[in-house]
Amino acid sequence: MNKGNVIVKEAMKMKPITVKTKTSVKEAADLMKKKGIGNCIVVDDTPIGIITESDILKKVVAEDLKASEVTVEEIMSTPIIVIDPYVPLEEAVKTMGKCNIRRLPVVENGELIGIITQKDISRMSPILHEISREWYDISVRDEAHLRRQIFSGKCEDCGTLSTNLKNVDGRLLCEDCIDALAYQ
Ligand SMILES: [Zn+2]
Q1: From ligand 1's centre to the CA of 145, what distance in Å?
Q2: Which tens digits make up the pLDDT trace of 117-164?
Q3: Ligand 1 mean position, distance from CA 157 (Å)
Q4: Ligand 1: distance of its center to the CA of 174 in Å?
């Protein structure tokens, strides 16, 4: 098999563990412990959220709430970003990097069929794993900081003086040029 053409379906885990929206955090935690997993997907017909060990730690334990009295719906991360099973692994890597997430539910025709994590990807392809780490770093370090910053000066595209220049892929552009880019 050509490693470059691996699709998500070939690398994902089948049958991810799911819970319903009204499942208590206690039940979900028991399930995660029993199955030896760190997260489960919240499903209401289609996947609508995900809860992880860190959600339980931060939103239940640290808040001193009772796990049997909190539903997963209250602490899940939602909405979730999902991926199609038939796209190349690179696509999953990029999505994870851009969205700053480590796992993606795999959905086919609205139905949850699997889950793919950065670990699954690094097992399939160490090179892709490197790319995913790069994307991760870029998304965390550069985008978060640079996108927020506003500069004053000459637009590097049209030369207009502006007090509202923003960094777009390393160039400082005025609002008009940024708008023009968006419509290309
Ligand atoms: Zn401009």
Answers
A1: 21
A2: 888 888 777 666 666 666 656 555 555 444 555 666 778 889 888 777
A3: 5
A4: 4
How is the chain split into domains, by residue range?
3-141, 150-182
Q: What is the pTM of this model?
A: 0.62
Q: Which two tokens stand for residue 41?
A: 């997907």
User: DSSP strand E in the chain: where?
Assistant: 13-14, 18-20, 39-44, 46-52, 103-108, 111-117, 150-154, 161-168, 171-173
3-141 folds as CBS-domain (3.10.580)
Amino acid at 140: V
Q: In this predicted model, what pLDDT tens digit does every residue of 30-55 receive, in sequence order?
A: 999 998 888 899 998 888 888 999 89
